[in-house]
Structure formats: structure tokens, C-alpha cells
From TrEMBL:
This is Thiamine-phosphate pyrophosphorylase. GO terms for cellular component: cytoplasm. GO terms for biological process: thiamine biosynthetic process. InterPro entries: Aldolase_TIM, ThiamineP_synth_sf, ThiamineP_synth_TenI.
Amino acid sequence: MSDTEDAPQIYLVTPPEFELSVFPDRLAACLDATEVACVRMGLATADEDRIARAADALREVTHARDVALVIDSHARLVSRLGLDGVHLTDGSRSVRATRKDLGEDAIVGAFCGNSRHDGMTAGEMGADYVSFGPAGATELGTGKQAEAELFEWWSMMIEVPVVAEGALDLDLVRRLAPHADFFGIGEEIWREEDAAEALRRYASAMAG
């Protein structure tokens, strides 16, 4: 997962729940329709067996297409499940230890909410990317938005690639495209009947 001087890239996030009988095919259709830099498996479960079975199914889809697959939070499962890295959700707190455990080749990303300081610290500690969000207005979570100004400042001042995610829409993607390296797109497309077509619309908005 690398930075680009051109249009931002897609960082695709799975739904928190999905059926293994159906979802891998939906994911494959999206990856075949539009270029995707990375997929994040973000299952909202602590059931290790369910996570492992999902990882096996999604790894088959992503790796067949040379797309990296990272897992949300569970850094200790990365090596065992043959994944490419981890997306940490505690800001900069565990970046240094995770980098040491997983080595230099693994992808280590850090979600930092709307904290400029946390983002800079994560980058200094070895994060491959920093994610800010929600980029759009939402009543979920704390409701604290990562404003466009944060992405503008980051893109001018910091070299670590930045991901914009959360409550995105096409207009917001167009507005943030000059300042983001990646867009974390998930629920925005999975709620649509044709997720692959929805993803194509986001890719078009990113390209301007």
C-alpha cells in the first residue's frame, strides 16, 4: 500500500458483518470492476474461528488479484492468517510495538480520529499510513468530524500517506481528493444493491 502522486486510491473496508456464502463474490466483483489498493477486514466479532474463516475466504479473493488484505485491530492474527498487515484503532498508542512484532514488511496503519498530534506521532513511530475520520457529518460515535482543513494541512506538511474515511459521499470525495492519498470506502457501497457499480462512482469522483 503506497502513496501516489496521482488520483487517490481506494482502500476498501468490509462490512462489520457478512455472510461467507455471499460476500466473497461481492468483493471479487468490486475488485474486478475498479482498481483497489487494499482491503481491510473489519469484522465486529471477537470469535477467533469466525475471523479465521473469513480471512481465509477473503485472502483467496484479494491475493489472487494482488490486492493487500489487512485486519482491523487483531495484530496477533496477522502472521497466523497470512494477512498483509493491521489497521490499529487506538491512534498512535500501539504502533511502535506492533511494528516491532510484525516487522518492516507488514502494513501497519493507524486510525487517529481527528487528532493531528496522534497522527504525527503514529507516523514517527512507523505507521505506513494514518487514517482520519469520520470525514463526513455523522451522529455515530463521538460525532467529532475530521474536517477538510485537517486533510489540507496534512497533505502540505506531512509525507505519511493519509486515508479519509467515514460518512463519505461523492461531493465530499471530490472536495477531499486533492488532499487525500486514499479513501476508506465501506458502508457507502455495501448498502447498495450493486456494490461494484457504486464503487465505480466513487472511483470516478476521486479521479475528478
